[in-house]
Specification:
With 278 residues, the protein is an alpha/beta fold. It contains ten helices and ten strands. An eight-stranded parallel β-sheet has the order 3-4-5-6-7-8-9-10. Strands 1-2 form a two-stranded antiparallel ribbon. The mean pLDDT is 97. Pfam families: Aldo_ket_red.
């Protein structure tokens, strides 16, 4: 695993692309001023990875903030995702064009299949392979794919997904899935790393954070990185965006990593990839 050094440190994907292991997620950040400010503050704080999606409705704001930031395009790793209603071969290609128009970018760093829509995700994946082959995307991957979804996809795929972005936190570790992804060289990435805020209610987390002189969020995000998991905490607050990046002056002990692993209870705060209806 790569050494965790600083906010702009990276993990290497299976095609050699370097993906910053800490990013800003912009789910629920409103289009316009809110998302533009969040991206601006993140870039000012040193973040070089922004994660959006068609479904978030804020790609235009993300693109505007990137253009106005003064940071070179090549320095920022930008992810978006194709939404469920756009899945299928031709419709995915059209959705990608719309995403790129809104972002105002010439290429995307990572494009993901947002959910494993039954009967459609293989055609969607073929479209992503085409975008990858033509150089419009530097890496392609999936989101919310469990092991059986990945096995089904890999049976026909020409390109192995570079990333699988999943709900991941101390109550949902899914270590066998992590191990499977590692064996296939698929980078694991966390969404909802802070359990939609529920992590802050756990007394054992408070005790652990106090022992490091850090916040609960910082301890959990550091755990993600030490497990080799890319993490994209979402926030629209300047202080929190900055605090979420203050992860590089401490290290969790192996014992504390194991304690967080042991909190796993297979509990989801988001939808179940095997049972969603959107």
């Amino acid at each position: 695993m790569s050494t965790i050094t600083d906010i702009q440190g990276t993990f290497e994907l299976n095609n050699g692309v370097q993906m910053p292991y800490l990013g800003l997620g912009v789910y629920q950040a409103e289009e316009g001023g809110e998302v533009e400010r969040a991206v601006q503050w993140a870039l000012e704080a040193g973040y070089r990875h922004i994660d959006t999606a068609r479904a978030y409705g804020n790609e235009a704001g993300v693109g505007k903030a990137l253009r106005e930031s003064g940071v070179d395009r090549e320095e920022v790793f930008v992810t978006s995702k194709v939404w469920n209603s756009d899945q299928g071969y031709e419709s995915t290609l059209k959705a990608f064009d719309s995403t790129m128009d809104d972002l105002g970018l010439d290429y995307l760093d990572l494009y993901l299949v947002h959910w494993p829509v039954e009967g459609k995700y293989k055609d969607t994946w073929r479209a992503l392979e085409h975008l990858y082959d033509t150089g419009r995307v530097r890496a392609i991957g999936v989101s919310n794919f469990l092991q059986h979804h990945l096995e089904d996809l890999l049976a026909d795929a020409e390109v192995i997904p570079a990333v699988d972005q999943l709900e991941f936190h101390p109550y949902l570790v899914q270590q066998p899935l992590q191990d499977y992804c590692q064996a296939k060289k698929i980078q694991y990435e966390a969404w909802s790393p802070l359990m939609q805020g529920e992590i802050f209610k756990l007394p054992e987390m408070e005790a652990m954070a106090d022992s490091y002189g850090k916040s609960i969020a910082q301890v959990v995000l550091r755990w993600d990185l030490q497990k080799g998991v890319v993490t994209i905490p979402k926030s629209s607050k300047k202080e929190r965006i900055r605090a979420n990046a203050d992860l590089f002056d401490f290290e969790l002990s192996e014992e504390d990593v194991a304690k967080l692993d042991a909190m796993d209870r297979g509990h989801r705060f988001g939808p179940d990839p095997d049972n969603f209806d959107f």
